[in-house]
Amino acid sequence: MYDRGMQALYKLTLSPIAETLADRNSYGFREGRCCADAIAAAFNALSKPNSATWVLEGDIMGCYDNVSKEWMLNRIPMDRDVLRKWLEAGYIENGKWYPSRKGTPHKAE
After folding, report:
1. Residue-wise pLDDT tens for the chain (109 aa)?
2. Measured in Å, how far apart are the chain's first and last C-alpha atoms?
3. How far is CA 62 from the centre of its chain?
4. Considering only CA atoms, which of 32, 5, 39 is closest in space to residue 18?
5. What is the dihedral of CA 27, 32, 34, 36, to 10 degrees?
6. What are the φ/ψ torsions at residue 21 (nearest 5 degrees)?
């Protein structure tokens, strides 16, 4: 219970910081933003007479596997020891613990 409470406190602290530093055109994994917001922004940007002719789509598969832990530790404004522990925590699935070997802790697909 204590750990969940501390996670909630860090989230409440970091959310406003993340929102002020994030790209204003970023919609993924953002509180209060959804696919419909991204579609509306794309429509507004592309409906102008001088707008882009092409839309490129990219696949970010493996993105979170390759995020540099050192990069995050140097840029996320929070207690480095706590962040390092979170990044190295791994995850539990069906009662079995899986370590974080690289990137961020997540379920491997």
Report:
1. 888 898 899 889 888 888 888 888 888 778 889 999 999 999 999 999 999 888 887 777 777 778 888 888 998 888 899 989 888 888 888 999 988 877 766 655 5
2. 29
3. 13
4. 32
5. -110
6. -95, -15
Token pair in block for residue 58: 């990219």
Cβ neighbors of 89 (< 8 A, separation 6 or more) are 100, 105
- What's the alpha-carbon Rg for the chain, to the nearest Å? 18
Model pTM above 0.70: no
Q: How many whole angstroms separate alpha carbon 61 and alpha carbon 39?
A: 21
Structure tokens at 81: 């020891």
User: How many Å apart are CA 44 and CA 50, to the nearest integer?
Assistant: 12
Dist. CA 35–CA 4, nearest whole Å:
29
3-state secondary structure of 92: strand
Distance of CA 59 to the CA centre of its chain: 15
SS3 9: helix
